[in-house]
Design a protein that fits this description.
The protein has about 250 residues and is mostly helical. The protein contains eleven helices and no strands. Helix 9 packs antiparallel against helix 10. It starts with a helix and ends with a helix. It is found in: Cell membrane. This is ABC transporter permease.
């Protein structure tokens, strides 16, 4: 009942925001700069075939491949740093430094290196998304109870058993928290990569429409990007509920 009430409250806030936007944009009366939600919806409906059939799959592929690389890289680095203090001292400062460089400044370099191929966009996506996965998973591995660890070792468990039966379950909630953040950031990464250099994709289409001063068509792919991010977030939440059923029983 409480969850339903929260959804209702959220829906009311969104509707209020859209109403203010509709009124404000209509009074401003410059649709090439600030179109109304109604104009964006109409443009989205008119362009649905082009956006959904041609540009959306291109963006989704970039997001999924980028996330796959980020998960693999993030888990590998987290496990390595957990087992080796030397690796932690080596890689952790590099992880932090990688997030201090503006991605918008690196993206043109990746386009220069990889051209307009899919890999320039994937690299941008990975650079944005691997950090929360790595840090969250590493923190989860480090959050293992020392008492439980010592108990398992006292009972004859090996390092492998301690890792699989204690460290991994302890790290899973942290991993999914990081993955939720990464999923939303992956949409941004893919859009940035496509914005700076691509031949297809929602970010590319939005930039192309901006040069034509078509405000509604600029916002239309952004709406699809937002929907894609929400769907991916819900899928991660579903996977989290499946893999962490034991947490509900606690």
């Amino acid at each position: 009942m409480r969850e339903r009430r929260n959804y209702i409250n959220s829906s009311l806030v969104i509707l209020f925001f859209l109403m203010i936007w509709q009124i404000g944009a209509a009074l401003y009366n410059k649709p090439f700069i600030l179109p109304t939600p109604g104009e964006i919806a109409a443009e989205l409906w008119e362009l649905k075939a082009v956006l959904i059939i041609k540009h959306l799959p291109s963006t989704i592929i970039i997001i999924l491949i980028g996330l796959a690389f980020s998960v693999a890289l993030g888990i590998t680095l987290a496990v390595l740093m957990n087992f080796s203090k030397s690796a932690e001292r080596t890689f952790y400062p590099i992880l932090i430094a990688s997030q201090t460089i503006p991605i918008i400044a690196l993206a043109p370099i990746f386009v220069l290196w990889f051209g307009y191929s899919i890999w320039s966009k994937i690299v941008v996506t990975v650079l944005i998304t691997f950090f929360p996965i790595t840090v969250s998973t590493f923190d989860g591995l480090r959050s293992v109870s020392k008492d439980l660890k010592e108990l398992m070792l006292t009972m004859g468990a090996g390092k492998r058993e301690v890792f699989l039966k204690l460290s991994v379950p302890s790290a899973l909630p942290h991993f999914f928290s990081g993955l939720k953040v990464a999923v939303t950031l992956s949409v941004i990464g893919a859009a940035i990569g496509e914005w700076l250099g691509a031949e297809a994709g929602l970010g590319y289409f939005s930039r192309r429409m901006m040069t034509q001063f078509n405000g509604a068509a600029v916002f239309a792919p952004i709406v699809l990007l937002s929907i894609a991010g929400i769907v991916l977030f819900l899928l991660v939440t579903l996977c989290e509920n499946i893999f962490l059923k034991w947490r509900k029983s606690l």
